[in-house]
Predict the 3D structure of the following.
Amino acid sequence: MCKKEIGHGHRPKSEWQIQGRLCGDCYVDQMKKFYESNLRQRCVICEIERYVSDMWEPRYQWNMKGLLCKTCFDKKDEAYQKQKTFCSICGKKLGMIRYNPKKQWAIQGQLCRECWDSQKTKLG
């Protein structure tokens, strides 16, 4: 690739689709390109491509597959903490006792007692 004279030629990997032998420098460069391309992934939310080492794995409570960038992880974590700390309907701060909505109500998060009672009388 670099047209240098080589004493010992390295055989390129078949995935690289390169014909002929490579010098040591070109072999290392090609190896870096190939493996770095495999180490990059897109964020599940914002679709930005980053190195896997810079990505964050979502918490199991979020029911997500894939990896997140740091900014998306922080936003998702903040939203989850808010959802867990405040009532989903009225926004009141939840105390020690929290109420989970019934599945047929189709409400995400937790409820305070007053909102749970009002939903129970409305929807059953």
